[in-house]
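Exercise (ungraded).
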Amino acid sequence: MSYQSEDESKIIVALDYSNIQNALNLAKQLNPSLCKLKVGLELYISYGPSIIVELHSLGYKIFLDLKLHDIPNTVMKSCITAAELGVWMLNVHSSGGKNMMSKAMQAIIQGNYKTILLGVTVLTSMDNDELNEIGYSKNISEQVLNMAELCYKSKLNGVVCSAQESKSIKNKFASNFICVCPGIRNADDKINDQKRVMTPALAAKNGADYIVVGRPITNSSDPLESLINIKKEFDESS
Ligand code: C5P
């Protein structure tokens, strides 16, 4: 099944706000034909499903980025609840294991939901030192491939990874295994807490299907102009 259409926007703007007015102001400045929106923990914990309803009414497709990580039964039921909200994309943490991910995916398929389910491989804010500190002995690229393999074997639709890893994931698994890549920065942008960053152009060249962009747009003095520039750079290199 194909989840992507050729002319849809591949840019997902991270609405990382805890204030609904700030989130809606940004959504109204942008345009659903130019981007999708990502609702993460901060906004969802503050406003719950009502924020999804509001953003849907503005015409946006929503990536609900809750990075679910719990026992299989809890994650499976939470995925169904999220799919019932009509979200376009949803994710679980691959470190929850194959059993958890398979059950979540089966529930989405059996319920005939259209929601794309992804597994987070290794957070783009982590480097090798941090990974080793939490007890993983592999380096980042090996660990990402290992987690991507678990996601692939669990029949998820794809992964969240850095664009530094998307090419090897596509090569190892399948070209239609979706890679959604946060940690996007231009050369003159602040990196903030991200570690494994890439520019929109290089992300596109490395096979990213979608890029997630937060602060380079949300902190911009002209978010719409920043979005248009990032989209142009990504599309021209795809
Ligand atoms: O502001 P910035 O562009 O760094 O935002 C990146 C967004 O992508 C944040 O909302 C963050 O939660 C999310 N994300 C990430 N790394 C992952 C998964 C999601 O940075 N592995």
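Further reading is listed at the end of the chapter. For now, observe: The chain has eleven helices and eight strands. The domain at 11-237 is CATH 3.20.20.70 (TIM Barrel).
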